[in-house]
Amino acid sequence: MSIEYLEGINVGDKIKLQENNRLRPEQSLPILKNRINEQSRAYNEFYGCEFLDDDASIKMSSHPDWLKDEAISDAKEQVWASEEKKSWERWRADKEKDPAFLNELALTLGLQRCLPDSCIVVRSCRHDDYENGFDTFIADKASGAVICGIDEVIDRLGNTGPSIKEKKVRQKMLKGGAEIKYGLYFKQGEMKFDHLKHIPAVYLSLSRAELDNLCLSLKEDEPSEGEKSLFQRLLLSLSKQIESYSSLPLDNDLRSNVQICAQALSSWLK
User: Are 184 and 140 in contact (CB under 8 A)?
Assistant: First the structure.
């Protein structure tokens, strides 16, 4: 029996099977960056000040320590780039293609879509990310408080990231909670900026498949049912973490903030 080959396929050619339909980072990144840029502009216009950068991270150029801390963050990145034998520019470009960076953008956008309008979800500046170890925080105009500081992790196959993060945030709680040098809060509905301490520390974990599905959903103007369901699960995870802190020997300020966080999460869960 003779063998018939598909048109365009020659004897000896290797046929590369199509990979699964997982989104490549470069496919999702432009859309997420555009969405988060729109969100940043909307926040800046609404509050009448340029407190967010294009990527929804805190920007406080008028702070007396801002330029010094930015230089320190630059220096850290240059060291990390050197350790990976890359230029600083290449290191920063590669960082944007990492699923962990997509995870951070997607969760920031998704949280803002699923939480009440009284909440504002922003990314921490590089200083607070590198020095104080969290990616995002939620401030609530209703209570005036910063609800929590969030560290985010991709749950890769066989990854111990979530369990490591859980230990990390519990240790942070035992040391007084999260600290935000460049933070914001609300007083009588007016946005204020300050160095904040005793903030409940939590983490959020997405699997790679969940991240891919979330990126697809975030392309749309309205959240899908799957997106809503995902964030209900994530809020429940936060609620359980906060509930577990009741057994820890926390100082009074942190314990009070944990109670505020628990009340907020309870009202957000449907």
Answer: no
Which segments within 124-177 are labelled E, that is strand?
A: 136-140, 146-155
Block residue for tokens 């983490």: 203
Given a cut of 70, whether residue 22 has pLDDT beyond it is no
Q: CA–CA distance from 197 to each of 76, 172, 184, 191 (Å)?
A: 24, 11, 11, 17
Residue 266 DSSP one-character state: H
- Residues 153-168: tens digit of each pLDDT: 776 554 544 578 788 8
Q: 165 burial class (0-12, 13-18, 19+ CB within 10 angstroms)?
A: buried
Parallel/antiparallel/unpaired status of strands 146-155 and 201-207: parallel
How many CB atoms within 10 Å of residue 133? 17
Indicate the pTM of the whole model.
0.84
Average pLDDT value for residue range 114-141: 92
Q: Which residue's structure tokens are 């590669």? A: 94
